[in-house]
Amino acid sequence: LADAEEAVNLLKNPGFEALDDRGLPVDWKRDAYDDREGITLFSISDQAYSGAHAAVVENLGMNDARFSQTVKVKPNAMYRLSGWIKATEVMDAGRGANLSVAGVYAFSESLYETNGEWVYIETYGLTDDKQDALTVFARVGGYSGESQGTAFFDDLSLVEVQELPEGVFADA
């Protein structure tokens, strides 16, 4: 692969366009640290960055909640996780709205309020020598970083890359 633009997106339904019979995105699971009813709402919005839909995580109380998807990856390979986020009234506490990977304490930039604008974010990571899968999170909150507020996610991407952009470091 020459670069990420030529790479294949490993995520299924990355723009949240395909919905199930409950109106939730196909191929994405819902998960939350506090899974009691009334703490987090998961939904789809027509306020998309592109296409017809965006995924929405709304924490009504402090929580770490996310849409997740597990994909196959190569060992000892570099990946870029990227996408578009719009954050609304996310309290300036915890991890805010972000993209991350399960099982590691590594997050993209945290967003708290984007004033109605979509913001592109990306983060890079290196798989270990025995790793064959990883789980991507589109989340509000984080490990030991619960947050409250609403985030919209669209056009997510996980691609293998051969090298990092200048000045960028990868999480492992």
Question: What is shown here, in short?
Answer:
The chain has 172 residues and is an all-beta fold. The chain has strands at residues 29-32, 40-45, 54-63, 65-72, 78-88, 97-101, 119-126, 133-140, 147-161.
DSSP, total strands = 9
Q: Could you list the spans in which at least 5 consecutive residues all have pLDDT below 50? A: none
Q: Name the shape in a single word.
A: globular
Helix content: under 10%
Describe this structure in words.
By secondary structure, this protein is mainly beta. It has strands at residues 29-32, 40-45, 54-63, 65-72, 78-88, 97-101, 119-126, 133-140, 147-161. Strands 2-3-9-5-7 form a 5-stranded antiparallel sheet, with no helix packed on it. A hairpin with an 8-residue loop joins β2 and β3. The two termini are 21 Å apart.
Keywords:
172 residues; mainly beta; 0% helix; globular
Task: Please write out the topology.
Blueprint: E1 29-32, E2 40-45, E3 54-63, E4 65-72, E5 78-88, E6 97-101, E7 119-126, E8 133-140, E9 147-161
Antiparallel strand pairs: 1-4, 2-3, 3-9, 4-8, 5-7, 5-9, 6-8
